[in-house]
Amino acid sequence: MKKAQTALVTLGLAGLVHCASAQGLGSSFGLNPGATIPDGNPVGWMGQFNVTGTSGQVSGVQVTLDITGGYNGDLYAYLVSPQGQRAVLLNRPGISGTNPFGYGDSGLAVTFDMAAAKDVHSYGLSFALNSNGQVTGTWAADGRDIDPQSDGHTFDSAPTTGGLNLLSGLAGADMNGAWTLFLADCAVGGGAATLQAVGMQISTVPEPSIALQLVGSIFAWRLCRWHCRTRN
Q1: pLDDT of 178-208, one tens digit each?
Q2: How many other CB atoms sit within 10 Å of the CB of residue 87?
Q3: What pLDDT is stored for residue 146 in this prediction?
Q4: What is the pLDDT of residues 50-72, one digit of tens each?
Q5: Burial class of residue 117 (count of CB atoms within 10 Å of its CB; 0-12, 13-18, 19+)
Q6: Partner of 9 at 20 to 30 A CA spacing, among 75, 169, 222, 231?
Q7: Measuring CA to CA, which residue among 55, 61, 49, 48 is closest to residue 87?
Q8: CATH topology of domain 17-206
Q9: Are β-strands 193-205 and 57-69 bridged in parallel, bridged antiparallel, or unpaired?
């Protein structure tokens, strides 16, 4: 029988790759840590994406996870913005009042998106597997900001919309600073999982002052063209 445990540890990310858009309206980050997530070990894995030198406020966030092995119903993951807003990406998928251990699939190759409608916690209602046997698709973050040791009935009643537990709660944040990702296997049994790759894409909108400057520049350009035509 599985026995749940939780704890935290901090580890640095290595091999971080950053790609900023030409317009400055977003940035992408990714790495391939090959980090083992030990079965039933509350230590977990934690790392940071350090973002500097960008402007504008967050308008969209996507997170991709490529996890192999293990037992999906044991996994717990969250993302924290530089301002401390937390989005719970995974919280023991499948656990409910009728399923105390969650889904027994092995591995995830998924994207979490602010605009997604399907709840990853209940992915078993409709999902697909890739050739590696990993659950795939684009999903809404789990959002159940409760102790992963909670019983199934607590998961059933946990709120999943609104507040800061979903990626939508990150909208409006300043993207500069340390974005923290945590992942752990929170129950014994099911084997060790491996975090093969993780990626994050942040979209931004210009600061209001910048947007006003852009509008003013476009208006001045059009006024100049009109004035030149009338003089000729």
Answers
A1: 889 999 999 998 899 999 999 988 888 865 4
A2: 24
A3: 94
A4: 887 777 778 888 999 999 999 99
A5: exposed
A6: 169
A7: 61
A8: Jelly Rolls (2.60.120)
A9: antiparallel
| Tokens (6 digits) for 125 | 């209602």
Q: Which residues, in sequence order, are bridge partners of residue 88?
A: 78
Q: Count Cβ atoms below 10 Å from residue 134 Cβ, excluding itself.
A: 21
Separation CA 99–CA 77 (nearest Å): 20
- For residue 36, give both structure tokens: 């083992």
Q: What number of other Cβ atoms are within 10 A of residue 49's Cβ?
A: 24
What are the structural domain ranges in the chain? 17-206
* Mean pLDDT over each residue of the chain, to the nearest integer: 78
Residue 83 reports pLDDT greater than 80 = yes
The 3 state secondary structure assigned to the chain is CCCECCCCCCCCCCCCEEEECCCCCEEEEEECCCEEECCCCCCCEEEEEEECCCCCEEEEEEEEEEEEECCHHHEEEEEECCCCCEEEEEECCCCECCECCCCCCCCEEEEEECCCCCEHHHHHHCCCECCCCCEEEEEECCCCCCCCCCCHHHHHHCCCCCCCCCHHHHCCCECCEEEEEEEEECECCCCCEEEEEEEEEEEEECCHHHHHHHHHHHHHHHHHHHHHHHHC
CA distance 140 to 162: 12
CA distance 92 to 2: 12
- The Cα 201–Cα 113 span in angstroms is 10
Whether pLDDT at 230 is above 90 = no
Q: How far is 29 from 7, CA to CA, in rounded Å?
A: 26
